[in-house]
Amino acid sequence: MSEETISLGKAISSGPAEIVDNGTIISFAGNPISLHYKNINISIVFVFKTDTNNRETYVDSCVDEPTVLKLTLYNFDGSFGAGTNKPMKIGKYDGRRLYLQLRIYSLAGSTDKTLQYTLYKREEVAGE
Asked: φ and ψ at 32, to 5 degrees?
């Protein structure tokens, strides 16, 4: 009897968007989390900080290098989680718009963060 390899070629979508990547990551000792997409030469870096002057959750973004998007996430430290309430536009690739949706959780007494993320792509929509 010979062994046969089956490739399902799975594609995941949600409404009009194709899901490019998704996952759950726990930071190591509170350090930033970096996603490196080598085949398209881009990186997304998640940095976790506390703003003692403003207890609201918010995100600052910047492009440190031409291929690196740095997202600084302030006050995402609740055990019940915090995140985006809709996908954030983060750029374009191959003529399609890229979006990121995330949830972040933290255990009391720990500097580690649990990041759940989904990266989407979809056709450009006029007026968006």
From this structure: -60, 160
Could you tell me if residue 26 is inside a domain?
yes
Distance between CA 92 and CA 3 in Å, rounded? 42
Using CB atoms within 10 A of its CB, is residue 113 exposed (0-12), middle (13-18) or buried (19+)? buried
Nearest to 102 by CA among 117, 91, 86: 117
Q: How many domains does the chain contain in total?
A: 1
Question: Residue 18 corresponds to which amino acid?
Answer: E
- CA geometry: angle 34, 37, 41, nearest 5 deg: 110
Write out pLDDT tens, residues 60-98.
999 989 899 999 999 988 778 899 999 999 988 888 999
Asked whether the beta carbons of 102 and 69 are under 8 A apart, the reply is: no
Residue 48 domain-assigned (yes or no): yes
Q: What angle do CA 28, 31, 35 make, to 5 degrees?
A: 85
User: Could you tell me the pTM of the whole model?
Assistant: 0.86
Tell me the CA distances in angstroms from 11 to 75, 77, 78, one per residue in order. 34, 33, 33
